[in-house]
């Protein structure tokens, strides 16, 4: 598989307004792609179309070669971290790991426990009592426990302080290096992602404005960024 995500003329509208319009893009397999755009640009809409939470009003979306609305098994191969990590706050990380195992055949509970243990996240404390950064790590560990081929993250660091942002990006990049998943993560700030992504999609006013290899785009526009690391 050379393409993890592909959209053609994809559109979604609410009433008369298009939240996403004529969106044609690909995310090549094995890449870390940044989906960047200001508030209201259509980032969440695109990710929700990709995981089948929304149905398109125009065009098509293919994820790992399948159509998300038509393939219930597809979600077992795709990890999704939704915006603001809406976890069940009365449960502990241990509870959530156990519950995930009942819902997913390919679930690796040990991997999730190990990952959170390494970060010293209290597994038996209620998620509502954890810090925002710790909750984000729990959401990431749950998404990774599926051993996903494609990992989608919707503004995972938007509400975190700088230290928690850095720790989250380090954990994410460590996991990607270990498992080799394709990643698409959104942010309204390119600065959050520029050092870790190698592919860039810029959305603005519901349309794709920029798409391609970060190195090629930087060379084309004669731009420079800092070293590509998460620390
Ligand atoms: P943010 O960074 O603020 O999350 P975004 O880039 O993720 O923004 P979307 O949430 O996809 O953008 O929203 C795109 C557009 O669609 C916005 O104008 C938004 O107001 C509109 N929109 C999103 N969801 C709905 C909805 N359920 N009903 C009506 N309009 C919606």
Automatic annotation (TrEMBL):
The keyword Cell wall biogenesis/degradation is annotated on this UniProt entry: no
Residue ranges of every copy of the ABC transporter domain listed in the record: 5-230
The entry's keywords: ATP-binding, Nucleotide-binding, Transport
UniProt key word ATP-binding: yes
A GO molecular-function descriptor: ATP binding
Domain of life: Bacteria
Protein name, entry field: ABC transporter ATP-binding protein
Species whose genome carries this gene: Plantactinospora siamensis
